[in-house]
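Researcher: Let's do a round of design. I'm pasting the structure tokens now; please hold your answer until I've finished.
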């Protein structure tokens, strides 16, 4: 991809189009999407400690994995893929442990089986639009349909649970922050944290003015838009599909 500016523009346009399509359709054709309502807990601050324990649990198990102390990955590619999926289920298990002990529904992490076909179909449809915009703006010389062949490879498919569960974990944090500190800060705080979490990687380039700072601002902006749309749709299924396929588009066309 030619310049960092082109990359930033391609990312913003891709995710912006996906969220924009959902917001427009929801405004003019609200019946197309299942309406979900979340029951508020009785005490405003009762969920702070469980939320913190859940997040700390994810980070702690993630560190255990980094040290190589979870399920080992054998040399066989299929067994290694299964091991990778199981390790991710273990890493994100604290979310579901908290839900179990707090007697909370999975719709409090924006997971629901209502109209699953609509969610999956919509996610796939807008992903094609988002990826094509990314492809056009990036100016890639590769064929567009190459992204689909790459996405169906085992080396790519094995990453879907990790990407999807990451979205579930973000929804877990987002919903509980909105319960305790309000929607505005529930959007701002995770967006800032998400941007800051990538600074260590970006700062290795040493190019703060034209790379690190733009990356940081773009990441925050996209996260704000995605969280706003997620709160409206109250679903991570379609967004998980977009996240996975856009990651594949970045690998295919952005390299």
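Researcher: That's everything. Go ahead.
Model: Designed sequence:
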């Amino acid at each position: 991809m030619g310049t960092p500016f082109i990359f930033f523009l391609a990312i913003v346009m891709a995710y912006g189009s996906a969220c924009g399509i959902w917001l427009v359709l929801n405004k003019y054709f609200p019946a197309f999407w299942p309406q979900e309502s979340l029951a508020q807990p009785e005490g405003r601050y009762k969920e702070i400690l469980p939320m913190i324990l859940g997040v700390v649990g994810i980070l702690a198990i993630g560190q255990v994995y980094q040290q190589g102390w979870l399920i080992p990955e054998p040399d066989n590619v299929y067994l290694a893929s299964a091991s990778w999926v199981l390790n991710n289920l273990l890493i994100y298990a604290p979310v579901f442990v908290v839900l179990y002990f707090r007697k909370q529904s999975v719709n409090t992490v924006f997971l629901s089986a209502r109209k699953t076909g609509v969610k999956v179909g919509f996610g796939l449809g807008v992903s094609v639009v988002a990826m094509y915009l990314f492809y056009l703006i990036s100016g890639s010389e590769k064929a567009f349909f190459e992204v689909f062949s790459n996405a169906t490879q085992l080396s790519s498919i094995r990453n879907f649970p990790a990407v999807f569960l990451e979205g579930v974990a973000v929804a877990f944090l987002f919903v509980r922050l909105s319960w305790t500190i309000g929607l505005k800060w529930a959007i701002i705080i995770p967006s800032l944290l998400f941007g800051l979490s990538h600074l260590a990687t970006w700062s290795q380039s040493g190019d703060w003015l034209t790379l690190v700072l733009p990356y940081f601002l773009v990441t925050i902006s996209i996260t704000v838009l995605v969280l706003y749309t997620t709160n409206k749709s109250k679903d991570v299924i379609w967004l998980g599909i977009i996240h996975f396929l856009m990651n594949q588009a970045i690998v295919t066309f952005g390299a």
